[in-house]
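Sharing a chain and its predicted structure for anyone who wants a worked example. Both blocks are below, sequence first, tokens second.
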Amino acid sequence: MKKHRILLWGVFLGWSIAVSAQEKGWTADNGDGTFTNPIMWGDWPDPDVIRVDDTFYMVSTSMHYVPGCPIAQSHDLVNWEMAGYAVERYDEDPRYDMQGGTLYLNGAWASSIRYYKGKFYVAFCTPYGWGTENGHFSVCEAEKPEGPWKRTIFPEYLYDPGLFFDDDGRVYVVHGQHTLYITELNEDVRSVKGKPVQIWNKGFDNSRTFGTKFGMEGSHMYKINGYYYITCPAGGTKGWQVCLRSKNIYGPYEHKVIIDDDSSYPPNGLHQGGMVQLKNGDWWFIIMQDRGPIGRVPHLQPVKWVDGWPMLGVEGKDAISYEKPEVGKNYPLSAPATSDEFNSKALGLQWQWNHNPDMENWSLSERKGYLRLHALLASDLKNARNTLTQRVQGPNSEGTVEVDISGLKEGNIAGMGIFQFPYAYVGVEMYAGKPRLVLCQDGKITELEANIPTNRVWIRARARDKDFTARFYYSLDGETFRPVDSTFSMGLGLAWTGNRFALFNYATKPEGVGGFADFNWFHFNLK
């Protein structure tokens, strides 16, 4: 069929076909040989992608969430499932354990992934606070994407690192913001060999920025037909993708804008990602677009080589709907898991903790078929350890949970919420010896039901991508859900991380420590 952009009704038609095939998250596959962007409609920021034999692997930024550096896998670049994580936990600072403070927005930034001589490598940077001046750089290595992974923390700070293995076996990292550098690593990829070499300091102007200069960042390097190519975004969330090229790794480099399109979701453009070659020689690019409080979602774009430059999309625009990559075989529809019955020995790969978990205070085995969360002392949800999260998704997503509250102690609050800054939740608080149902919006608690007469409650949250609002519902019998008379506006106080469903149990009083909540299941639906 002719490759072309389609009208809005076609986008929703493709969505309905894909979603009806399974009760999981968003599936981009339309079932007719085409796909509709985004390929994942949730927060998978800063994507980088490789191919190993017949399998593609994509890594994403995860910041403070644990485990970190999620790795997804696919056979056709359209249908994805989780493969594992490169970072089990962060042990370099007690604040990752919420001891002496928190480390929101730290952890893993701008991950890149490469495969060389039988090993997977994931590189990322960890900033100390904001900016590009202080932090450290890490490289994780494993023989399989599911691990085990070995992490090396470098004393050097290589911001937004793009890992690259050259034909001669030498290893480099391209890094920086505005000013770009190349730093050589030693052959074992566990230490720096040389000093940073500056290769670019020009910034970049584009007509719709009204003359404002934007430094390039998020770089990824490739060697193709004798040229070194560096792809990098500029312009922030409203930005575009730039490519540098040179026949010498240290330059000089020339540059070209390879896509500049904010028309499909104004005012945010397609602006950071990586490219990969198929077995048949075709090239494709996975590039993210900022969808506000839903997060940064990855789009799949065809690459057309023009005068030695990899031009993305269709006539310079986002390929909203397009023929799937030609990988020589049709694969079934799939999407990363969402729902969980908590019947396994391990948590599903869709889950990430808010900071490092306390492993002694949660369990899948203390009560078979349940996730048990023991309460730890916290002033509010922002500081509540062992809060378990997964992405909200577009177009509209719904999460429902059943929780047994019979193990709560005085001052415990357990339930489910939409987590970011601000946050909101519906939960059960053990108050003056009796359980009451409450709504909390960023710390402000309102009573919904006093002295509820049951040990089980059901909580539901729906998140919308159009106006970025969420609504809560609750049930005392598992059948009839009552809407909460309040609409929550999802925000982005934690810049660059999408809102998440969150399961929690924390103690507001010392006597409540150790009280437990049992979550029977979490069910996800696209609405």
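Comments welcome. The chain has two domains: 39-323, 352-526.
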